[in-house]
Amino acid sequence: MSQISIIIPTYNWEKYIKETIESVLTQNFKNFEIIIINDYSTDNTEEIIKNFKDNRIIYIKNDQNLNIVWSRNKWLEISKWKYICFLDHDDLFIDSQKLKLQYDFLEKNLDYGMVWSSVILINENWEKIWEINSRISDYDLKNHIIMSNQFTCWSVMFRKSIIEKIWFLNKRYNKSDDYDYWLKIWKISKIENINKYLFAYRIHSNSTTFQWLNRYKMIFMWFKLALIHWKKYPNYLKQILIRFVADFIIPDKIIQFLILKFKNKI
Hints:
By secondary structure, the chain is α/β, with parallel strands linked by helices. The protein contains 10 helices and 9 strands. Strand 2, helix 2 (45-50) and strand 3 (57-61) form a beta-alpha-beta unit. The radius of gyration is 18 Å and the shape is globular.
């Protein structure tokens, strides 16, 4: 019986989708379903997915191009199992214990609603760019959550029962819907960082996060969410100021150097 639903939206990503699916199928924990939503791709994505002969893969193709939030919400509603993971079509689970470690933690700690992990950033050729160690303590998280989303979306596992309390992803926050969702989960339950590198995030020229227009849409949404949630966090104004300086004044290369300098933390 499946215990985990892994939701993978994809659109025109024939280059990496095979590796992404394989990174799930090689997990030591086997009781999962992979829900793949093809958002009306026009390349060979569908053919590659259909070449996998595994009854744990559930595949559907949208009859028009919608968006990632709509696709995730559709399958959040349909998914049957106890825990949920998101995974994008160009990213990877890099530790075969990823699902098992997070599943075991949530099974043993019923008052926790969400777990996540540290992340390795890779390029198009699988070469490591740098490692990002997520912060661990509740206080440390609150002191930095407005400066940057501390919960890398695709490293997270959360309880499906959470949906009954906070509903689905908010379409108003497209490109930052996950950030909003993790903040909501944090408000109603405990959360935990499995302090291991379990996930790889691929940086490349077509990555949504690093496209110029998308990046600034995300920054705008981060500020909007910070204004909504500001009462919860210490040093709110300081965090906002640092975030503004990092996004609009200091060059990206200096920001990357500082991340590496200060223990590779986001």
